[in-house]
Amino acid sequence: MKHGSHCTINDSEDELDGQVEPYHLMEKRNLEKSILLELEREHHLKVQEEVRSKLAALEVGHQNEIQRTISAFARLQKYAESRKEIDRRLDVHFQRRIAEVLDKHLSMVQRDHEQKSQIVERRIRDDAALEEAKRKEQAIKEEKLRQERARQEAEARQKEAAKLAAETRKTAFEAAQKEAAEKEAAEKEAAKLREAAASQSSQNSQNNNAGIKVFADKYALEAESRRRALVHNQVPENIHLRKEFAKYDRQIAKSISKLMPTTDNVRSRASELIKALDGQDCPRPIACCLFANKIISIVKSRNTKDKTFGNLAFACGYVMLLVTNQVPDAMDYLLAEFNRVCIYTVPKHLHALNAQARNRDYYRLIGYQEENGQLESTESYLTYVVAYVKLYAAMIQTEIKGVRHPHGLAEGWKWLALFLNALPATTATACALHAFLKMAGFALHKKYGSQFLKILDVISRCFLPALKDQGNKMQSEAVNNLQNYLNDKIYLQEPEGQYLVQQLLSKELFM
User: By the number of CB atoms within 10 A of the CB, which of 11, 180, 280, 475 ranks highest?
Assistant: First the structure.
């Protein structure tokens, strides 16, 4: 701008200079003309000075205007930035408020949802409690009815016994005179016979127990004795031959003979068996004993070497759980029957200390069966040991949601600990141990984790080395089975047949 203003001044000067006539010093002029020229020149210079001063003032004003414009622009920019900062703060504050309102809303929604869930859960619990109360009330009524029937039956038996006793006394009184001498002689002879029989029985008992060492935990032996006493006290001998119970025996046997490892079949068989055990005309202990005998005898009636026997064992496990859940008394009779047919379900092992003790009675005592007067082979015996232990393991590992197991995995864990603590490493115990782990190892590992792995470590470090020292053909096979189970980590795989049955039952029947 300064350069432009300067050019304007120079141009104005040139214009002014162009307008002045050339002054010729040599030209003669008159005084007036000279004065006039001098005035014109002064005037011209004054005008030039005024133009210069005005131009300078304009330039200064222009510069001031530029500065004011720059200052105004700076203030405007600063104001814009301050407004932007204020807007940003307002936006952040607004977003915070929105977030707070949204969080408050979500919290209210969550509290409302929780309250509704609690109401639903409380309603479900109340319904369950009501159903449980109804079930208990029904059970109390049924128990009262059973007790009343038992009382009536007992009174009837007492009356019949009293009547029979009266008749006997009458007959005895009438015949007393005639048979006094014969009766006295017969009593003396009978006393002699009883003494001889008692002496012979005591001698046989001593011979049977001599040279036999029992390996078992005290707790396991007490439990076995308690179950045996229960059956002995509650169930008459040879109930299968009693005509009054033949109907129930056939009914239970028929239901179990139809058992197949399918969902519908398991449900139908369990329902039939529960109804049979709740029969009005058959005492509960006898019905439970018949059920236990028939369900476990499936080992004898089916081919245990068939690959499908494992599936059938799992189906039996579900049936046993469903039945004992509705009829809790049946579990003691089941365990008593397991202990009777296979001592390793106790767990217990009998060891003959010498060749004399290893007689026919010893083999019968440990579970060998006789056919046509001949004891079964050791291979056949071990096959049945494996089958019985598999059936027992299938029962203890069976779980159904919402159904309490009276003898479940915790009892299986206890059985395994008692087995390894008390029993020696033999071919029979190795077969039983492998059968148990094969059926229940997956469930035990799933529940007990690292503790179960410690049990397997004990088997690897202690049981297997002791077993290898025996060195026979069957022992070698048992060692390989256990070694492969540990090396291949079979306990990480669900046993064949168990997954399908459990899924179908849990989803279709009991959920």
Answer: 475
